[in-house]
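Sample pair:
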Amino acid sequence: MSGEERLSASVTVPGRIESVRPAASLLVAMARQLNVPAAENALFEVALVEALGNALRHNARDDDGPLRCDFDLIGRTLTIRVLDQGARAPVNLSIPTGAAPWSDATADAWETIPETGYGLYVMRAIFPAIRSVTHDGHHGIELQLVF
């Protein structure tokens, strides 16, 4: 794509954990087809799996309610949103900055890696801009990168 061309797509994802990998794979395939360089990095898919999985685990939503994934490519800016389909209050995210707190840990010190919270660091490794958003009345997370 060149200039400020825009490509947008939206997919509704069933609110079940077994839907996470297929949805992430679809988003990766779209990004690869559109020559987004980061999509070739294995962490790209891991970051999307984390975003979708976190939405299922942490969003205040109806049980088994669907998620909506928006994919927007404008010029060289990719934005992916994972949104709760229920119109509820947004979840406050504490988005980390800088390196992961365990980045200097060795294989011998694996117990220093926290059980939870590492997903935001994985997402940040691929998507420099991460934020809580309200979009079209739905709440969720927005991942963005410029390439």
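The longest strand covers residues 138-146.
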